[in-house]
User: Fold these one by one.
Assistant:
Number 1:
Amino acid sequence: MAERENSRKMYNEINLDKIDINANPPTEEPARQYYFMAKCRQYTEQFQEEHGRIPMAHVQNYGCQMNARDSEKLAGILEAMGYGLIDSEEADFVIYNTCTVRENANNKVWGRLGYLNVYKKKHPHMKIALCGCMMQEADVIEKIKKSYRFVDLVFGTHNIYKFAELLYTALQQNDMVIDIWKDTDKIVEDLPVERKYAFKSGVNIMFGCNNFCSYCIVPYVRGRERSRKPQDILREIKKLAADGVVEIMLLGQNVNSYGKNLHEPMTFAQLLSEIEKIEGIERIRFMTSHPKDLSDELIAVMGKSRKICNHLHLPLQSGSSRILKEMNRRYDKEQYLALVAKIRAAVPDIALTTDIIVGFPGETEEDFLETMDVVKKVGYESAFTFIYSKRTGTPAAAKEEQIPEEVVKDRFDRLLKEVQRCSTARAEALTGRTEEVLVEEVNEQDDTLVSGRMGNNFIVHFPGDKGLIGKIVKVKLKECKGFYFYGELDGQER
Ligand code: SAH
Ligand code: SF4
Ligand code: F3S
């Protein structure tokens, strides 16, 4: 398998060669983890002597963008240890970074583990690790202990920064290593990161969630809301900019409540204004915005910003005020629509996208029609639609009126059709315009084309070569294909 291309690392000042691995491990972080990275490097060097090649590692991500960012951190640590990274599970070390937001996310992991077991039987030296949100569930851990004995290392979301130390322990012994924490208030900065893209990057601004929407497992598996210090975030972004990154995506479960628990509180809008000043960063995105916390201050900052993209992901979940109350979302249909109107007035060409759940317990046809009504009224550029999935331990799971599968399926299909209709109408209205596009990759189907993303998050394919990757260019949108476009370069690079 080909090694990953296009990737960039963020190295820190700590030099692994200068670490005395025969001394006792330091107690402070991140020094302690660098010590264990140096220890693991001894192992990878020995592996190379024995096998005539470096050991290969595969990091598989199953979750949201925050999970994807965590996977980049795992990959960065593995690389610092001397592993090579590959896109195949036929590797010497495989780690699954799991998600548990819906049942099907879990099922994928159980399914893949079956394959890994078969592969490991033929390659007994292989090590398998599981981490991420699913591992924070007690019944998952029981199942692994009972039926997945071939797994070598299991850890959760709160101690992911300890990966180097945990892997070192797993390499030393044959028994399964399990380390799951209930919660943490700790944020460890400055661990290595291996970015998937050279020109864009996610940046965590906060961890956890305090909202407890009644259907959602995230607050239970990610713990309480913790914001990173603004100076740490700004330092990271400056470093990324110096490294050639032009677009950043600020990540948090509810970015609009950023900064509330800081020693010196700061609003999300203030943070954005600081980030805007960083030279080299051309585009700023963020996700996710909870409608209940989206402030006028933020709308004003978005309205006058040159760098914040004209795209807002604003999860609706349901259009029925009654269901929204049951979901503990703390806004109603009218407030949501009023918010949309306010944003559109301040940022006229903004693209709005959303998340919608169909089949929440007790959802009636009337409730569902309210959701359809909001979709029609807002006219989203795109929407992620989900069938409600019962998550153990959440308040909604205890509700009796679960909706029959065929009813949910019918509503889901109707919703999808409406969402696609709105999305196509929105896209078609852009045809003929010239838009700024960040070129992301050579088109997978046709290598005479490159593919890029506009500020509003629509994708356009146009003739060009790989030299354009990472550049922002002007592209004329010639033909709309529903949710993407064909176009052509219009004039000079920016
Ligand atoms: N923090 C973000 C969302 C994180 S989860 C927010 O509040 O918007 C991403 C999406 O998964 C949610 O917006 C929701 O639409 C969906 N989701 C969460 N729990 C779900 C469940 N139990 N069943 C179906 N979809 C769910
Ligand atoms: Fe889940 Fe709600 Fe938190 Fe989003 S805001 S992560 S949906 S509890
Ligand atoms: Fe999934 Fe965890 Fe993200 S449950 S959606 S990976 S926060």
Number 2:
Amino acid sequence: MTSPPLHDRRIVLVSNRGPVTFTDAADGPLRSRRGAGGLISGIGPLVKGTDTIWIAAAMTEGDRQAAATGVAEAEGFRLRMLAVDPDTYHLAYDEVSNGVLWFAHHGLWDLPRQPAFDRSWPAAWDAYRAVNHAFANAVAEVAPRRAVVLVQDYHLCLVAARLAVLRPDLDCVHFSHTPFAPPVWLAAIPTEAGRELLQGLAAHRACGFHTQQWATDFTDSARQLAGLTPTTFVAPLATDPDDIKRAAAAPACQEALATLQAKVGDRTVIARVDRLELSKNLLRGFLAFDELLRQHPEHRGEVVFVAEAYPSRPGVAAYARYRDEIERAVAEINQRWGTADWEPISLSVEDNFPAAVALMRRGDVFLVNPIRDGLNLVASEAILVNERDAVLALSAEAGAWEGLQEGALRVAPFDVAGTAGVLHEAVRMPAEERRRRAVILGGIVRAHTPAQWLANQIAAAGA
Ligand code: G6P
């Protein structure tokens, strides 16, 4: 295949979730469709059609069938799907990556009870290492000489250490799309595993983060827990405006907007779009809305909270429990305040991208209140497609806060009453002030491009 180069050094991109996923071929030929997530919408368009090789885990049965074909081309990507034994993959992805590392980096543990590592831990950590080594072997096999290897995220911290042995000609960079655990949280992981993780990351030429705070948390952990001084760089990912605007203009989004409009009429809409995810702090967001209605009766019947929450990681038990708690809280709040013609909260738990983008267009206030978040692209996507000068109520613990604070209202994520106060301010904000802030936010978001983010990573490899 002859494709234009992305850069004068060949690039190999390595991530757990790929840009494309395949449907099971049981009923016909393998069919591909675009994968989910910010990495794909951000850099997919840059990489597509170039000679970049993207290596990703086979996560579905269809992916496994695609994996059997070696380097393939799908949706314009040069793709290598890596199939690992399903039990090993489950331990590495659900137990270690999502059940332990995600919790450490986002501060989600319930320390009097969790984490508690039992006899099953060593096997889980071995599986994590095995998956990382399988990725390293795949890179070693397909990477052109002196290629730059861009490793993404917490699933793949041990790839570079192995590649240093297998392919010393490659330059590896790591990028974390999450925050990084400060020493006090990382120390909760069994000591040897924590040290191996940090050594694995330090084996890269540099480790990148969306904010200076996450980079500092990483270097603190590396120094205190492993005596290491790794090189870091800071490069926030940006949203590709064309990609999200195309989604907003699509007929499916038009239809979803008409449905939404029929439901909300001319009421003020507080909106949120999230994965149904513990770090996103959905529960306190609904409790803050409850408090708003209690404190300010004038908003009853006038304001509606619309939430599009798409299900995530059903393999992690804490997520299912969190979903139950959220659904119970929403039912109680609707019961308490709702009337015959007004449902205070409309919560949809399904993967409905057109509906999510329609909500981004129609929302009057966006609540983005994560406990801790690597960046949060929803905030900038909403800014790019919103048609009503929406007010952004943004957690100071989201990586996006560093860039957007000039135009956003600040939310302290644990302060439910304070969040209610911010929502009150947002709902009542005069049109002129909304406009002023929307112009600032639009300017900031449009000034950054995914291409810059990618260039920063390649530069960090010394290329
Ligand atoms: C979020 C995070 C990424 C992470 C991804 C994994 O988007 O920001 O850092 O890689 O979740 O989600 P997944 O659904 O692939 O487990």
